[in-house]
Write a structure and sequence with these properties.
Layout: H1 2-29, H2 47-54, E1 60-66, H3 75-93, E2 99-104, H4 111-118, E3 124-125, E4 132-133, E5 135-141, E6 146-149, H5 160-172, E7 178-183, H6 200-206, E8 210-213, E9 227-231, H7 238-249, E10 253-257, H8 285-291, E11 293-295, E12 299-303, E13 307-314, E14 317-329, E15 347-350, E16 355-357, E17 364-370, E18 375-379, H9 380-385, H10 389-394, E19 404-410
Parallel strand pairs: 1-2, 7-8, 7-9, 9-10
Antiparallel strand pairs: 1-5, 3-4, 5-6, 11-16, 12-18, 13-14, 14-15, 17-19
Length: about 400
């Protein structure tokens, strides 16, 4: 009996030693191996974030102020704080040693709390004594540029990766690239109209870039402009088109958005031709011809598989019906091999135009966004006149081929 107990005790001791040894080896050799078992992959970084982290050239320091002790009575903030901490550790593990992460629990009246306040963090009162807790981030780069998230709001939990990646990106690129906007639409708001504000896309781009309104009447483009964003160009002057052409010929990059039916266009009717339809389309026919691409004239893409459903009223009351010109495109419509579209899951497009590569094109034409095969070309004027979705649907006849909605041109 004594011998059996001795053998059993020795086995337990060996098992414990083996467990400790395996733990040490794993910690030493597999520090970057992580497994995300959460339902929504809360700790799995997107490929875009991983690309940014993998290209960091200078060190970045992240000081995460997390009053874990003081927030014990606030389970929602504690759980979120733990998630932010774990997410930051993922950022560090993918940065190839470029990110230095410091997790700080600033106690009341401590030097760490003074640093948190000096860094621009916002604390919240946790008791009647006035003690404050912190849940924020201060990031700095090698040139002492600073980016701050004053307090991680739980209401922005779905945007956590976006906020963290934006902070890291801005520290890695303190000199913002310049985006020049050329548009006949009021993307920056309308002057002298107090309720007119810049479009959301303009405000979002300003978080990463230096965004400039170039107008639609210019003879040259400043050499510090990195990318042109041309939106709904209508009746641009010859010198303006020439300046755009020269910019592209010199190696400049341009994003061009042309439209057969601009639903945001509020062009008033021509008083000289009161019965004529307003000009809601846009194009760069001469330049696009030189670039080897054209947009089909007065045609809009319709897709019965991707059509969004709208409410309409029929003889038996309200019902939902597919509206062919409004598309909700899924992953199958996006080029999975191109970095610009490989991470897209859903994209809404309304009355989208159709692009075609010219037969004599000398440029490389790569489709980025396409319809499904159950699609057809819709007549623009028919859509303007006919407002009944059911009649549009009754006229649907599949072309059994994909229509190209966006493409990349190179060469």
């Amino acid at each position: 009996m004594l011998k059996r107990n001795l053998v059993s005790g020795t086995g337990l001791l060996l098992a414990a030693c083996l467990f400790i040894a395996i733990t040490i080896i794993v910690n030493a050799t597999l520090t970057n191996l992580r497994l995300d078992l959460t339902e929504n992959k809360l700790f799995t970084l997107s490929q875009g974030t991983i690309n940014i982290l993998g290209k960091l050239e200078e060190p970045i320091r992240l000081d995460f102020y997390y009053s874990q002790k003081a927030l014990t009575g606030f389970p929602e903030l504690t759980n979120y704080g733990n998630r932010v901490r774990d997410m930051l550790q993922e950022y560090k593990s993918h940065s190839h040693g470029k990110i230095e992460l410091n997790i700080i629990d600033p106690e009341t009246f401590s030097e760490e709390e003074d640093d948190a306040v000096a860094g621009g963090l916002q604390g919240i009162a946790v008791n009647n004594a006035g003690d404050r807790a912190y849940l924020g981030l201060v990031g700095t780069n090698s040139t002492d540029d600073e980016e701050v998230i004053p307090f991680f709001q739980t209401s922005r939990e779905s945007a956590l990766e976006y906020d963290l990646t934006k902070l890291v990106y801005n520290l890695a690129h303190p000199k913002k690239r310049v985006i020049g906007i050329v548009s006949t639409l009021p993307m920056f708001g309308i002057k002298d109209e107090p309720y007119s504000k810049p479009w959301t896309i303009i405000n979002t781009m300003k978080e990463f870039f230096d965004v400039r309104d170039l107008g639609t009447d210019f003879k040259e483009i400043d050499p510090d402009v990195d990318v042109l964003m041309i939106v709904h160009p209508k009746n641009l002057k010859l010198e303006t088109r020439f300046a755009i052409d020269q910019f592209v010929l010199k190696g400049g990059k341009a994003m061009v958005f042309v439209d057969p039916l601009g639903e945001s266009d509020r062009t008033p009717p021509d008083p000289k031709h009161p019965g004529a339809m307003p000009d809601f389309d846009s194009d760069l026919p001469v330049l696009m011809d030189q670039w080897g691409v054209k947009m089909l004239k007065e045609k809009v893409a319709g897709d019965i598989n991707a059509a969004m459903h709208v409410q309409t009223r029929g003889p038996r009351g309200p019902r939902e019906i597919a509206y062919l010109p409004w598309l909700r495109l899924a992953r199958e419509s996006f080029n999975q091999k191109d970095f610009a579209t490989s991470e897209l899951n859903v994209l809404h497009m309304g009355t989208a135009g159709i692009l075609v590569k010219k037969a004599d094109a000398r440029t490389t034409f790569t489709p980025l966004i396409e319809t499904t095969r159950q699609s057809m070309q819709l007549d623009r004027d028919f859509l303007v006149i006919q407002r009944d979705p059911s009649i549009i649907l009754d006229n649907f006849k599949s072309s059994n081929k994909k229509l190209i909605l966006a493409a990349r041109l190179q060469g």
